[in-house]
Amino acid sequence: MTHTHFLFISGTEITFILFIVILVFGADKIPSIAKGLGKGMRTLKDATNDIKGEIQKSADKNGIDTSISKNVNEELSKVKDELKDFTGSVRRNL
Predict the structure, then answer these.
(1) Is the entire prediction scored with pTM above 0.90?
(2) How far are the Cα atoms of 4, 18, 23, 24, 86 from residue 12, in angstroms, in the given order?
(3) Fewer CB atoms near the end CB (10 Å): N or C, the chain?
(4) pLDDT tens digits for range 54-84
(5) Residue ranges per structural domain of the chain
(6) Model confidence at 3, in pLDDT bands (50, 70, 90)?
């Protein structure tokens, strides 16, 4: 028997939460709620990208070298990938 876990919540708990949402809001309101959440997430992502762009422009204008942060992010990605490989092999051996 397999259980699906998402953020430490089991499939049964997710089903129960969805059931409560349907009871509270009604089945006809769920698509509009999801659409609103999607628009909100998109707006937040766009705002984040705008802020990043402004910071980058300001850094470039003032002659600040931001390449070190790119190098750090690349190294962190490498370590993360290696850690995933290692934990995957450990999990397979258990």
Answers:
(1) no
(2) 9, 10, 17, 18, 31
(3) N
(4) 988 888 888 887 777 777 888 888 888 888 7
(5) 69-94
(6) low
